[in-house]
Design goal:
This protein has about 200 residues and is an alpha+beta fold. It has one domain: Protein Transport Mog1p, Chain A (3-Layer(aba) Sandwich). The strands form 2 sheets. Strands 3-4-5-9-8-7-6 form a 7-stranded antiparallel sheet, with helices on both faces. A two-stranded antiparallel ribbon has the order 1-2. Strand 7 and strand 8 form a beta hairpin. The protein is globular and about 55 Å long. The two termini are about 15 Å apart. The relative contact order is 0.19. The model has no long low-confidence stretch (mean pLDDT about 90).
Length: about 200
């Protein structure tokens, strides 16, 4: 099921399992925030309209990847950057970046998504998906499977790699458990939840 919300000149459908939050003092004018909890994730998504000149370049995924790499902290890594067309024919681009705070429990996956609507504005979705409850379970389970199948080397070869450039070694690289083909086995994981939100937005807007 979906909710229909209006922000600025935009009308957008979002999953109805998110609950609208009261605005905070620092929120952008006209934005709306929604949250969701699962047994393994805390999800927050903010919807707003931004000037088109502030949007990521819809036709240049490589440029976005380079920009993210240039700003990554040592506890961060790229999960994915993708572009495409929504079901109603609107351009979109999004990125998912993970942050592994060594002083805290769990991983956070941050989503930034832009959808082209009008010449002067685009629709923005900014999301934060935090691992809660039993943390590290997806990593541990997938690692054990891949190691048993001989797909992980003695020095962890085959476990972690930048998804777009195997020569890029900075930060916390995406690991094999974070591949999309493992989402179905971990439906409540924060990365799965981030991808579900993206797919829903693309399908219904």
């Amino acid at each position: 099921m979906l909710m229909n919300i209006a922000i600025a000149n935009f009308t957008v459908n979002i999953p109805d399992d998110y609950i609208q939050m009261n605005p905070l003092p620092g929120d952008p004018v006209g934005s709306m925030s929604f949250s969701k909890q699962t047994n393994n994730s805390a999800c927050l998504a903010m919807y707003s309209a931004i000037p088109s000149d502030k949007a990521m370049p819809f036709n240049s995924r490589d440029q976005v990847i380079a920009g993210i790499r240039g700003s990554l902290a040592q506890d961060q890594g790229i999960i994915e950057v993708e572009t495409g067309i929504t079901n109603s024919g609107k351009k979109y681009i999004y990125s998912i970046v993970k942050t592994v705070n060594r002083g805290s429990i769990g991983v956070q996956y941050s989503l930034m998504m832009h959808i082209g609507y009008y010449a002067d504005h685009v629709f923005q979705v900014e999301g934060f998906f935090d691992e809660t409850g039993y943390t590290g379970g997806r990593d541990t389970a997938v690692f054990a499977i891949l190691q048993k199948d001989g797909k992980i080397g003695p020095n962890y070869e085959g476990w972690a790699e930048d998804p777009y450039d195997p020569e890029f070694k900075q930060g916390i690289l995406m690991n094999a458990s974070e591949r999309e083909d493992f989402d179905e086995a971990f439906p409540e994981h924060p990365l799965t939840q981030a991808r579900i939100l993206v797919k829903t937005i693309v399908a219904v807007n």
